[in-house]
Structure formats: structure tokens, C-alpha cells
Write a structure and sequence with these properties.
The protein contains 13 helices and 14 strands. By secondary structure, the protein is of the alpha/beta class.
């Protein structure tokens, strides 16, 4: 017979019940904490930033997160999975059908799991297939191309079928944290995918430039292009007899850097390697002026130099293709997002990138044009406009999430 010891305590006005369900209190089994009147959310993502952000966004909501991160960076947010069963970093992105069944069998009567009301998946989206048998609310917010872990034709098609099943329940949510990924999911599934952007207000740091600091050039993954870009920009600034300095972020800060250190620079210059980045969300919320190539220029540079190398999974692998392994379900007028050899397709899809959707970003048409804009742009005015936009977005997004959680209740 199992001995039971019960303790009750009050914590921030919510009753917690701690149960020791073991024959001896000396066993190492952790106590089960039951959160009454709280919505419990389970996540075991491979990326720490999206869930760290959503926990910050939900800080005023009556929720509790059970986070069992499989990210190699989980130590930075103290979220590493310590007692996760069946899944691990090796199999978590793409568990086999047998492992999915095993996960359900292990957890279907688990006391901690039985408290869970919502499963939430960011990275990877496909991980939420694992939670379908539990018949709870599923919230998917894709932060990258959603077929991660399901790259084969059959696996990808099966994922689409499961996403359509998930989307058919009005209490579930299929979203992207950016418009590109929302449109990407819609292209292959037909699901009307909403955008629930990351907020990344957790930095608690705001733009405060110091005169002696250089403009920073964000990380690029095309090393030769990166070197030439800085050389051309430096030459343009010198030709205009400007004292403005520019520096590569990773060279200026050799290793990790603090948010407040970034905020002291006059602005950030991008030739982006991805269409959406958590660091970009962070910098925008800091009201930091941002400089990006115009859509036409980035399209040209990507077509010639593959600068947006992580736009497609084939781009990451270096095995570029002119089509996806499965077909889209929308109009044939919409080009394949994974066609890396059609400049019109590249331009069509790049326009959905975060940096072409957000206001108050400064665009340049050449390195010479960028030099002129670094000299002449009113940075404080731009930062003030970003601040107002961010305040409005925070209120709008908070209300959107409030309605979503109310609908689940």
C-alpha cells in the first residue's frame, strides 16, 4: 500500500498541494506540485528564446509552464529537461512512430501530465504531433520553416495531414511568429495561419547610444561577402569624409555580450541570413535603429551570393533546388518558396520577411546609399517612432493572447 503525505501551502494567493506518492520520503522522486486555478502549459522545445519570450508575455496571466527544454542552450534559462521520459536531444526533433506511441503510454496516466491543459510548440512545429493523442489544446507557433524533422516527402505529407486535423479544432492554434512562416504553412497546407509575433521585451533595455560607439554589422554566414561588404562600406564612408565607424558584431564583441552593450551603439546594419531572427525581435523592442538592404537589393544579393542562406533547409545543407519535395496547395500563380533559382520566386517570398513588414526600418539600395543614410538619418527620431510602435504592439498582442486563452477556457 502506498503511503501518502500531504502538505498545503499558500503561494502568491494560489493554493499549492504537494504530494509525495512513494513508499518512503527518502526516495529521490520529486514532489508533485498541483497548481489549482492555473492553466498549465507543457513545452519541450529545441530553442530557448521563443518559449522564454512567451513566458515573459504570459507573466500577468494565470498560467504555469512545465518546461523540459531539449535545447543545447537550455542552461542559460535554467530550463533543461531533467526528468523527461522517452524523448531526448537525439530523437526529440523527429521521434519515430513507435517512440510517439511509447511517449503516450508513459505519460497518459502521469500525475504531472494530467495537469496539462495546453501543449505549445515553436521549434520544432512537428513535435506537436507527439501530443495529439492526449486530446488537449495544442498551440503551434512556427519560428522557422515548419517541416523541420519531417523533410522526407511522406513524413512532410503526413505532417500536413496532422496539422489540418489540429487546425480543425477551434481551441487549437496554428501560427507563425512571423508572416513568412505563416504564409509558408498556408502555402503547403491551406491552413489560415495567423501571426503571433515574438515580443522579446524581456531585455528590459532601451536605446541609449554613446558617441564613441561604432555602428554594428550583424552576423552574416557568407564570410567572403561579409568581408567585402564591410570593406565597401568603409570605403564609402571615407569617401564622404565621415568619421562614422562600423564593426562586425562578432569581432567587436569576442564572445557573449550584454543587451545594454548593444543598446549603446548608434544602430545595427543587416544583410540577413534568415527571414526572421529572435535577435532582431530583441533589437527592435530595444528601439534600436535598424538598416536593411531594400527588397530588390537583397533579392539580387541572395540570387548572386546566397546571403539569406537559412531561408530554406536546402540552403542550409548547400544542396540548392528549384522546387520542394511536395507541392503547394494554393494558386499556381504563387511560386514555390524553396525554388532557389528563380529570382521572381525569391523576391516574392522575401517580401514576407520581418524586416519588410515592420515600420521605421531604414532601407538602402547600395553600400554607397547606406553610407549616406548612416550620416544623415535622424536616429533619435526613428527610435522614438519605434518606441511608440512597440508600445501599441505590446497592448495589441497582450489582448490577442488574452482572447486565445479565454477561448481555450
Amino acid at each position: 500500500m502506498v503511503n501518502k503525505v500531504v502538505f498545503t501551502v499558500f503561494f502568491f494567493g494560489n493554493l499549492l498541494l504537494i504530494l509525495y506518492l512513494s513508499n518512503s520520503l527518502k526516495q529521490s522522486q520529486r514532489p508533485l506540485i498541483i497548481f489549482y486555478n492555473k492553466t498549465v502549459i507543457w513545452t519541450n522545445d529545441f530553442h530557448i528564446s521563443p518559449i522564454y519570450d512567451i513566458k515573459d508575455q504570459f507573466s500577468t496571466f494565470n498560467v504555469h509552464f512545465i518546461e523540459k527544454s531539449l535545447s543545447s542552450a537550455c542552461k542559460h534559462t535554467d530550463s533543461c529537461a531533467k526528468d523527461l521520459k522517452v524523448l531526448n536531444r537525439r530523437n526529440g526533433i523527429a521521434p519515430s512512430l513507435n517512440e510517439r506511441k511509447q511517449f503516450y503510454e508513459v505519460y497518459k496516466n502521469d500525475s504531472e501530465m494530467n495537469q496539462v491543459k495546453i501543449f505549445m510548440c515553436f521549434h520544432s512545429t512537428a513535435m506537436c504531433e507527439l501530443f495529439m493523442p492526449f486530446n488537449r489544446t495544442i498551440i503551434i507557433i512556427s519560428s522557422t520553416r515548419y517541416e523541420l524533422g519531417r523533410h522526407g516527402k511522406e513524413d512532410w505529407q503526413n505532417l500536413n495531414k496532422n496539422l489540418q486535423i489540429i487546425a480543425s479544432n477551434p481551441k487549437n492554434v496554428i501560427a507563425g511568429n512571423n508572416l513568412y512562416d505563416a504564409e509558408y504553412i498556408r502555402y503547403f497546407t491551406g491552413i489560415k495561419t495567423i501571426v503571433l509575433p515574438s515580443l522579446c521585451a524581456y531585455t528590459k533595455v532601451f536605446y541609449s547610444p554613446k558617441l564613441e560607439k561604432p555602428f554594428l554589422i550583424a552576423q552574416m554566414h557568407n564570410k567572403s561577402f561579409s568581408i567585402q561588404f564591410k570593406k565597401n562600406l568603409t570605403n564609402s564612408l571615407e569617401g564622404l569624409q565621415s568619421s562614422i565607424k562600423v564593426a562586425h558584431l562578432r569581432e567587436h564583441y569576442n564572445g557573449r555580450y550584454a543587451y545594454y552593450e548593444l543598446s549603446q551603439h548608434p544602430g545595427m546594419i543587416y544583410v540577413p541570413y534568415q527571414v526572421s531572427l529572435m535577435s532582431l525581435f530583441e533589437q527592435y523592442r530595444m528601439n534600436m535603429p535598424l538598416f536593411f538592404p531594400s527588397l530588390d537589393l537583397l533579392t539580387e544579393w541572395h540570387f548572386k551570393y546566397r546571403v539569406v542562406g537559412e531561408r530554406t533547409w536546402d540552403g542550409i545543407s548547400g544542396n540548392l533546388k528549384n522546387s520542394s519535395v511536395i507541392s503547394g496547395v494554393l494558386s499556381s500563380d504563387i511560386p514555390d518558396p524553396n525554388n532557389e533559382f528563380d529570382i521572381n520566386a525569391i523576391r516574392y517570398w522575401l517580401k514576407f520577411s520581418d524586416f519588410y513588414q515592420w515600420p521605421h526600418i531604414t532601407y538602402f539600395d547600395s553600400t554607397e546609399d547606406l553610407a549616406q543614410k548612416l550620416i544623415n538619418t535622424n536616429l533619435d527620431e526613428i527610435s522614438t517612432k519605434m518606441k511608440i510602435y512597440n508600445q501599441n504592439l505590446t497592448e495589441t498582442l497582450h489582448e490577442k493572447w488574452r482572447r486565445i486563452l479565454k477561448n481555450i477556457q
